[in-house]
Specification:
single chain, Rossmann fold, 2 domains, seven-stranded parallel β-sheet, six-stranded parallel β-sheet
């Protein structure tokens, strides 16, 4: 069935974020490939700072989307990047800017479905729903309120405000999506029958194992004889840094040749000084553009997924988990890593530890090395069976069709 879909993001860096590249841009391209009859528009409201800083990327994206019949519209709003978690006064400021801009786009495109990524986007889409009448998909992505509290962006008053908005969004949405089955425990009871799990996807084509590149990188950094444990992602946001350092120190007791590669956009001199505890010859911190990350994952040997015990991590599925597996890396993962830990146990694609001082760490590391090939193959199977971008794109298409069919049934 031909459908008009408007995919909406708000206050996120669509022009530079590696996560949005894989989870929005690549995914929409795959959806368009699988259902070319659909009309898809990606509309992004971005902080004005990001709009001008990464302006050259905008033109490239417009061209890439146009080739596959997706329209890309981007609109700057007067916000700084740190305001993704909106306080009450910022929320009003956001609405005053975003609402008329989005209303014009809806009037122009007349979408049957608005697929809103995260809470700010879903909120403004819900405000306009009665006026224009469309199916609203609330793609939660994370527990926005709990994240705002953990990052100390929300006061108690901000939390109460967003609690009310969240309940209202559950009622307004025609469908609710989370990245793990655990999300069911944190949504309204009346949403259970309209909830779906769609995991964070990975495109295996981006992680084709190139032995030549792997060797070149290892030789360049003099790591040919080392066993490289890689940690990719933000540092200090969802995991305690000192605990990560302690974990690696414990790993080196069993594997003296272990080396820690950290790929991150986080730039903080204090972080560097903390990692110096494991010795300057035993770690490397790289700040890479998203398109260079796959090569360095492929050059590594074992992926690290390390998370602190928190509600946010209990329901989450980190994008890096799928990327490690697609790059051919078994994982060493903490039990507090939520859905990733659950999947690692089911598919046996790595070892799950309780924390950095797990009393069975020595035995688990030995098992990881002894069964390396089997664990690697199991990870590839998990990617093919569940995390593959094609599977996720099909799930979204099924949800779109289900929403439209239900709307037709009751009108």
């Amino acid at each position: 069935m031909k459908q008009k879909i408007l995919y909406l993001t708000a206050i996120e860096n669509i022009l530079h974020s590696g996560v949005l590249k894989s989870q929005v841009i690549d995914l929409l391209m795959k959806i368009s490939e699988l259902a070319p009859a659909n009309t898809i528009t990606l509309f992004s409201l971005v902080p004005i700072h990001n709009y001008f800083k990464f302006f050259s990327r905008r033109k490239k994206l417009i061209y890439e989307f146009k080739r596959i019949n997706i329209e890309f519209k981007i609109q700057p709003i007067i916000f700084l990047t740190r305001f993704f978690y909106l306080k009450q006064w910022q929320l009003l400021f956001f609405i005053c800017q975003a609402l008329p801009i989005l209303a014009f786009q809806i009037w122009r495109h007349k979408p049957v479905i608005i697929h809103a990524r995260s809470y700010p986007a879903a909120f403004i889409a819900a405000l306009l729903k009665r006026l224009f009448s469309y199916n609203l998909i609330f793609d939660m992505k994370g527990l926005y309120i709990a994240e705002g509290e953990l990052l100390k962006r929300f006061s108690s008053a901000d939390t109460r405000k967003w609690d009310k908005i969240e309940k209202w969004l559950f009622n307004q949405a025609d469908h609710v999506i989370g990245v793990s089955p655990e999300f069911k425990n944190f949504i309204s009871d009346n949403c259970i029958n309209k909830y779906s799990t769609v995991p964070c996807c990975v495109n295996p084509a981006n992680f084709s194992r190139n032995i030549k590149i792997r060797q070149e990188i290892r030789e360049k950094y003099q790591l040919t004889s080392r066993i490289i444990f890689v940690f990719s992602g933000s540092i200090g946001l969802w995991e305690p840094i000192q605990a990560l350092v302690q974990l690696f120190a414990n790993i080196r007791k069993e594997i003296p040749a272990a080396f820690l590669l950290i790929i991150t956009q986080t730039q903080n001199k204090q972080i560097n000084s903390i990692f110096e505890q494991i010795g300057k010859k035993n770690y490397l911190i790289l700040h890479l553009p998203p398109d260079k990350v796959p090569d360095f994952l492929i050059a590594s040997d074992i992926g690290l997924v390390f998370r602190q015990i928190h509600l946010i991590n209990k329901v989450s599925l980190t994008v890096k988990f799928g990327e490690y597996l697609a790059a051919g890396l078994p994982v060493l993962i903490t039990a507090s890593a939520g859905e990733a830990a659950r999947l690692a146990k089911i598919y046996q694609c790595g070892v799950v530890i309780e924390d950095e001082n797990d009393i069975h760490l020595k035995q688990k590391i030995r098992y990881l090395l002894a069964d390396y090939g089997a664990l690697k193959d199991s990870g590839a199977k998990l990617v093919i069976d569940y995390l593959n971008i094609s599977n996720c794109a099909r799930k979204y298409l099924e949800i779109y069709e289900q929403c439209v069919n239900l709307r037709q049934l009751f009108t």
